[in-house]
Request: fold
Amino acid sequence: MATIDIHPQTSTHHHDDHAHEHEHHGNFWTNYVFSEDHKVIAKQFLITGMAWALIGGVLSVLFRLQLGFPDADLSWLKPILGGWLTPEGKIDPEFYLALVTMHGTIMVFFVLTAGLSGTFSNFLIPLQIGARDMASGFMNMLSYWFFFLSSVIMFVSLFLSTGPASGGWVIYPPLSALPQAMQGSGLGMTLWLVAMAIFIASSLLGSINYISTVINMRTQGMSFTRLPLTIWAFFFTAIIGILSFPVLFAAALLLIFDRSFGTSFYLSDIYIGGEALPNQGGSPILFQHLFWFLGHPEVYIVLLPALGITSEIIATNSRKPIFGYKAMVGSMLFIAILSFVVWAHHMFVTGMNPFLGSIFTLLTLIIAVPSAVKIFNYVTTLWKGNIRFTSAMLFSIGLVSFFLTGGITGIFLGNSAVDIQLHDTYFVVAHFHLVMGSASFFGMVAGVYHWFPKMFGRMMDERLGYVHFWFTFLGVYLVFFPMHYIGIAGFPRRYYSWTNFETFSGFADLNMLVSVAAIFTLFAQFIFLFNFIYSIFRGKAAPANPWESNTLEWTTPRNPGHGNWPGEIPTVYRWPYDYSKPGAKEDFIPQHIPYSETPESNLPHENELIKLELNNGSINGENKTHH
Amino acid sequence: METSTTGDFKIVEEPSKPLAMEPRKFGMWLFMGSVFMLFAALTSAYIVREAEGNWVYFEMPRLFTISTVVILVSSITMQWAYWSAKKDNLSNVKVMMTITTVLGFAFLVLQWLGWVQLVAEKIYFVGNPSGSFLYVLTGVHALHIISAIVFLLIVLVATYRYKVHSKSMVSIEMCTTYWHFLGGLWLYLFVFLLLYR
Reply:
């Protein structure tokens, strides 16, 4: 104990004074629309994110129709697609590119960044660390409304007569920089850039809030070593966001200048219709460096929250302490650091110096180590646990499965020599859809199933949850596993059609299977949607602690008001993973139960801590417990 | 760990919270972190692009040297205002805050005149990236300076209403930090541009 602060008792419980100020008053607008309550903002993020997921999913099915059934007559889609169908009833080739681009943009940024981090960081950080709200409720509200504005702009761009941005979600110039290059690089691209600039502002506001809240607003006794792994994950995610999103902003800023003001940051020596453009001296590779400096950390912005959610759910439903708590935190930290030094593995085919390529290969392969540690820890947590197969648990186990199968192909792709062969084929598509797309999506869905009772005070239907899980799990593997073979066979991604190449005709049936599976998986999501909406209104009323979990959010009332705890904020005495502790009466001991109340299960050093509890009302944060 | 009762209130030892800081101030530091990353990205892009050749070399406007001096002096006056507020020397706070704000505006004007000099040298925003980069770096920095001047004005008004004193330091503290940060950032950009021309 380094310092001793002396406080009058009257001021030690300063947070309690607020308890009654936070009763619900205010009207519909301040309670549900422009709310500063982190729980309402989390639900706003969730529902907007789900709407985007639905749009992104429908877009993917549209282009899968083209890829799986290149000869089919799609005139029946006329009411939706209108002019984007050719007279023969095919999807317009440029619109196909727009579909692919918007699917990527929507899923990566709007669903798995804002929808995932926005929902669960907002919802869980104050509830699990024992805070009344975020550090700044106002900034938190701004964060959502910036996201909403950005969503509106991106959504509007879908309906432009020239189509939305079409140059791929990575928007490489010169394709994205020159309106002459393709229709989508006109107004659609401008709106894309505006929407993303606002999105970055939203993301930064959110991240700043998450970090300051985690560091400054933990309740008494909640030392860093007692944080649930969810909070660690959100914390690292926010740090990655703060460091990487400004770089994307810089890249986008220079692109905006190139597009609208005639500068030449990325443009050089371009001839259109035999005419030379005035732009001289730019470098398109520069954009790729800047983009991937965000782009790779972005992968972990998407994945880490899902991994954190999974850690919590797997420990709770295995009724066992998480295996290797410190190893979990350490590997997340290591992943976060490494994510900043591997970006050039996306650029092995840009004519990079082979020596530099081998350095990036090495750094990339090192990521396998912390990732494997995490998978090992998940499996060892499950090992011999009293597993409860709730829907959330199934989706978490599904995540571990995807993280493994998708991660292994990452070891192939991280090698520059192999990557040059596989670059921009369906092998890459299969890899990142499993490891980052599906894994994160499963983490998000698992989180919804697990924390739905806290969000809406009601339970989701478990049987529908099982059906949803098995349909989605099988569907995802049926979609993405065949893609590995298609990719090794050399199919390039983003192509509208392969019917011109005799070589590729052998895989037509496999592509058809993928498309059928994609449609099937999309329809399975409507089971979830129905379950979600039905349960909000008609679900079984949730008990106080439905999963018998240890974390603080389950000590709040069934429908917590603004301020979360009606009385005092609970003090934390132990780490969050005291499940099935030998000697304990029940198989879980929540974080707010002091050691003095559990003499039957205390370890010798924990008995020592009782004295401090009795004297102090809390254990000093410096006296860490060891497990 | 002793608990003793004296009169009405109990004296307890509270655990010192690790890293506990005024959340707004902490948020400010995080914001500065992201601004730093923005400029780190732009200057790295500058270096990468310059290494590729086809780079037009030109003289930096001499006015940028003067603006550097101005912003350094304004940092001193800002710090002076902060110290005065700490000592409750309120009339001095007003004077120093006013001088800082004026110097802030002067910096902006000097940057603008620097651009005018550049145009006179026939270095335009549209042209070789070496010039474009200079405009982007100084322009984005100037935008942040504008945001800081707005902050300065808010604190300045507060000082004239006697709302800044030793018991209410958060706003002037944040303002001082931000202003030093932007001064330091300019110094970095200035030295960077002198070295990589």
